[in-house]
Amino acid sequence: MTKTQTSGVGLVEAKRAHFDTPLTLRSGEVLPAYDLVYETYGTLNADASNAILVCHALSGHHHVAGHYADQPDNIGWWDNIVGPGRPLDTDRFFIVGLNNLGGCHGSTGPASINPATGKPWGADFPMVTVIDWVHSQARLADHLGIKTWAAVIGGSLGGMQALRWSVTYPERVKNTIVIAAAPYLTAQNIAFNDVARQAILTDPEFYGGHYYEHNARPVRGLRLARMLGHITYLSDDQMGAKFGRGLRNGNLSFGFDVDFQVESYLHYQGDKFAGYFDANTYLLMTRALDYFDPAREENGDLTAVMKRASSDFLIVSFTTDWRFSPERSREIVSALLAAEKNVSYADIDLAFGHDSFLLDDPYYHSVIAAYLQKVPS
Amino acid sequence: MTKTQTSGVGLVEAKRAHFDTPLTLRSGEVLPAYDLVYETYGTLNADASNAILVCHALSGHHHVAGHYADQPDNIGWWDNIVGPGRPLDTDRFFIVGLNNLGGCHGSTGPASINPATGKPWGADFPMVTVIDWVHSQARLADHLGIKTWAAVIGGSLGGMQALRWSVTYPERVKNTIVIAAAPYLTAQNIAFNDVARQAILTDPEFYGGHYYEHNARPVRGLRLARMLGHITYLSDDQMGAKFGRGLRNGNLSFGFDVDFQVESYLHYQGDKFAGYFDANTYLLMTRALDYFDPAREENGDLTAVMKRASSDFLIVSFTTDWRFSPERSREIVSALLAAEKNVSYADIDLAFGHDSFLLDDPYYHSVIAAYLQKVPS
């Protein structure tokens, strides 16, 4: 394990695209217009055949790689995999990252101004789901002159978007890379999301989702949601190895302040996240996870859905991921095999649970790199 | 699986014992006096050699079996295992259940009046730990004329009390039955407890633990804590089998109200619990869990601690329990074997996760019954 200290792509800039063709969402609601914030790395080739779309997970955004001129320490969340000579090789590919619709990093979302009221959308922002994101991303592809993606890639909720791309726009995806994902959430997955949402929804500072107008933020609820999320992102073994039963100050307090290092870690993570993330976006992202279930369109038959795809597939899971365990990836692999698709599968032995997909592990990265070697650019 | 519909022991009554010898707690604090509420079933024999102590888990209490004259539907929480001909056979044994110190079912706890102030203890109630409970239970044994327990039994946190009894009062325990427990909590276990506590501690209605005086209750936080607890008590498979992705009303709401049956279940359980349980007791019980780690007294050597015991042991785990997995029970078994104790171990294949210990399963109950058959009464 090595940590990438410097960005491979160097200076980057966020861009903004405005779309004023109304977007009909899965719910039936119509979003009249929207902005998407995005970044690109590398050069689009003449026939626009070397583009890779990176889809983000629950708390991700468009700043995938590189750093900003005025924020040299703000390095993209997946910088370790993007750059010259890196698995998503910017010498060969044109990489696109965006902030999803409903997000809180610049794209239109609950904190944006609702043109109908002149006030932030808040709770009135329509529910967006994975297929809605894919449709909005297809328009971004049009905007960039990309007819077909060389690959669509993502981890966790990002992997679900990649999977959805492959069956919603089969003619526009050559390769689909689905990492640490699942074909749908289990009851336990939904239950964790439910507790996280209830923490936010019942926070007195939530004001029914219209907290912006009250100059308030449901910080307590968002903090709890993130703390809980962190438990599910890490493996039991990793938490044991990292914190064990270690005490922060060597002694028990016989009270409810922080005694154990793991408490200190969770509070830090929760506070940090609650300081910048938007609670309405958190609600929306977790609901999009709950609702994701493409097999529903074929009465639960995932194979029948996957038959629509025409891309090749790489599916990656991690041995210690208990949020979306390797078994969940194998459900996808089985459906793809039954649908007679070309599928490669790697179950990678990494100790870092669900979060393994973000790590700079040589073997993991070599699997992605080897797969992308065969993709023409 | 059959559900016991009628109590085996019939009408029961709660009793109260007052102890006015000060109790020095592990923290160093001294509780000047306290009450314990308890129930007994069966008849203590002439030499008081047939008594079994039932220790309760996080949300349990003294009402282990039977029902009350004025509350015929209020059947004890472990009634299915206690009664004539049942594994804890009241024709042979004298069964004792109590509400632990710090509890909220009648024994002295945070909601009791602090004699020093004339107001509820609230946050000033001293932290009680598993060894403190064992000391207080030893006094209850004295009060009942029981010098030696034929057995001490408990599930989860109750099993930890049983384990603690075996090494703290080795001369007073003939048999120790530890079900669905662990020798200490992992970092992940502590992390879940931490989120639950933070939900309560950051609830604006908590008032630093003195909510009684504000005529308030941190209901939102307690509800979240219980919802989260329920996820860890059930197995992923069981939640899948029981709820799957079933929708409450057949359709998605495209909002944050209850869509999935599992959400409905969790809200019901959370609301019910938050309606009657005391938040300060919840904090205290989870902290007692975090602090439990008898091996600390021997620099982490559980075998060295268990060498102090003179009882025989039955250790029981459940295959689908991921809160305290079978591996955790086997840590206890290994230490007992290394300490050259007589130990029986059963890993029982039940689908109900941690909560399996409360179930009326014939095989599980036959294991307990068979073990207790050999115990003289």
Short description:
2 copies of one chain form a homodimer. By secondary structure, chain A is α/β, with parallel strands linked by helices. Chain A contains 10 helices and 14 strands.
How much of the residues of chain A is beta strand, in percent? Answer: 15-25%
Helix content of chain A: 25-40%
| Oligomeric state of the chains present here | homodimer
Rg of chain A over CA atoms, rounded to whole Å, is 20 Å
Largest interface: A-B, 54 and 54 residues
Number of distinct beta strands of chain A: 14
Written overview of the protein:
Two copies of one chain form a homodimer. The first copy, chain A, has 377 residues and is of the alpha/beta class. Chain A contains ten helices and 14 strands. Chain A has helices at residues 130-144, 157-168, 187-201, 219-233, 236-242, 261-276, 279-291, 302-306, 326-338, 362-373; strands at 15-19, 23-24, 30-31, 34-41, 51-55, 82-83, 88-89, 94-98, 113-114, 119-120, 151-155, 175-179, 312-318, 343-348. In chain A, the strands form four sheets. In chain A, strands 1-4-8-5-11-12-13-14 form an eight-stranded mixed beta sheet, with helices on both faces. In chain A, strands 2-3 form a two-stranded antiparallel ribbon. In chain A, strand 2 and strand 3 (30-31) form a beta hairpin. The longest helix of chain A is centred in the last third of the chain and has 16 residues, at 261-276. The model of chain A has no long low-confidence stretch (mean pLDDT 96). At the A-B interface, helix 3, helix 4, helix 5, helix 6 and helix 7 of A face helix 3, helix 4, helix 5, helix 6 and helix 7 of B.
